[in-house]
Amino acid sequence: MAHQDPNPTLLELAQQVQADCRIIIDHLARNALPSPSLAADAYPFFPGTGPPGVDTFPRLNEDIRKARTRLQVAATTLAQLAAGPADAALTGTIGHFMSACLQYIHHFRLAEHVPVDGDISYKDLAAKAGVVSNQCARVLKFAATKGWFRQTRPGHVTHTAISKMLLMPDFRDTIGYVTGESFAGGPKMVEAVEKYPGSAEKNETCWNLGHNTDLPMFEYFEHQPARMQRFMGCMRYMASGESFSTKNVVDAFDWQGLGKGLVVDVGGGFGHCCSEIATVAPHLDFIVQDLEKVVAQAQRERANDKDIDRIKFQAHNFFTAQPVKNASVYLLRFICHDYSDKYAAQILGHLVAAMGPNSRIIIVDEVMPEVGVLSSVEEQRASRMLDMEMMLSFNSLEREEEGWQSLIEQADERLELRSIRRIPGNVLAVMEVGLKQPN
User: Does Methyltransferase appear among the keywords (predicted)?
Assistant: First the structure.
């Protein structure tokens, strides 16, 4: 369990910050790595935590990973104590102001009109974006208090390393999804609870009320291709980072041991997960299934990718019968958490009907820890944040181990949860599910 003193003093926290800073600084110096900075030309990731293939620095070892986490926890608590309980409480209630500013920044593409080098006046920036100058300046000045953009001189603004992230397409899509989709559901929580008490339905959510539609999100996106593409960009970005990296799928299961087998990636989007697996399992073939429009785009974008001759795409709705029978593995990555038990059990049920005696279902999703197992920073950033997103947008949840056991039994009594492997530094766990073997 992650031990956290519930009542640390200012001095104890300052000493913890200093000690962990020293560990991290020594690590960076010893490996000739860039120092963290918010300057516009700074390296955009903490070295060793960015997307593999983009961030080529060595992955963090366990000691450095823990030091970073301790530092973030101590620094956060230190800031709260320095503010005092009353101010700290008030600060926690005004996150919607920043979300509103980021929605404005994203929608009017302000980041793209700010020079990568140098600055621009608020007046000229507003003219380029087609917005009111005074309003633009007020939004950016508030965002600057959180490290997004920086005023260089009176009336002028420039990028920081944080705001410059908006120039990366998939990160931009992530901000667009959070502020354009999820943000609208937040104010509707009480209304949804009162209108649909205890609902497990896909179309009786806070998101539905916020967007004034009776369609579940993904069905709605079928009629809104730009928003579907934005969602896919968000998923790509999340999968590329340290916390949700697809690499954990490769490391946590013996794919090579399947030999010449077939993996069906159910709801697999653009097939990035299968591409990762293909690099370590040269004898496997893959079928990536998703909705028709997603498959059409994936086939266009990935036509020349490495190993694409072993990866086929197939249009399929996982709420219908699974057409591929007796696959070695049916892979569900980041799927079940989008659905309440009622619907997640249906997804699993269709796979059971297609399984052969040696087929397995690999579920890659979060297994919620007990409170206190993770640090407060890790728990908030990953587990609790995602759980709230599932509640607001899907009437679903992030499940604890008992919840996964219950879901699997509900789907089919012949199924058993064989193993759970958690990966340090990664939010997701890898679960192996199979058919019970006769005694």
Answer: yes
**Does residue 385 fall inside a structural domain?**
yes
pLDDT of residue 1: 41
Give φ, ψ of 311 to 5 degrees.
Answer: -120, 115
- 115-124, 203-212, 269-278: the lowest-pLDDT one: 269-278
Which residues are designated catalytic? 337
Distance of alpha carbon 90 from alpha carbon 229, whole angstroms: 36
Query: Across the chain, what does the average pLDDT equal?
Result: 92
Tokens of 410: 């509900």
Find the length of the chain. 439
Lowest mean pLDDT among 188-197, 292-301, 380-389: 380-389
For residues 76 and 376, the answer to whether their CB atoms sit within 8 Å is: yes
Same domain, 53 and 126: no
The number of distinct structural domains making up the chain is: 4
Amino acid at 232: M
Residues 154 and 209 in one domain: no
Beta strands in 222-302 (DSSP E): 262-266, 285-290
Looking only at the bridges linking them, the beta strands covering 415-422 and 399-400 are unpaired
The stretch 57-65 carries a mean pLDDT of 90
In the numeric block, which tokens belong to residue 183?
A: 């943000």
Does residue 270 sit in the same domain as residue 357?
yes
Q: Are 119 and 156 in contact (CB under 8 A)?
A: yes
Residue partners of 35: CB distance under 8 A and separation at least 6 = 25, 28
pLDDT score at 3: 57
Of 232, 252, 275, the last residue of a domain is 232
Query: DSSP letters along 64-110, please?
Result: HHHHHHHHHHHHHHHHHHHH-HHHHHHHTT-HHHHHHHHHHHHHTTH
pLDDT > 80? residue 50 = yes
What CATH number did the domain enclosing 405 receive?
3.40.50.150
For a pLDDT cut of 70, what percent of the chain falls above it? 97
Burial of residue 403 (number of CB atoms within 10 Å: 0-12, 13-18, 19+): middle
Q: What is the pLDDT of residues 198-208, one digit of tens each?
A: 999 999 999 99
SS3 label, residue 356: coil
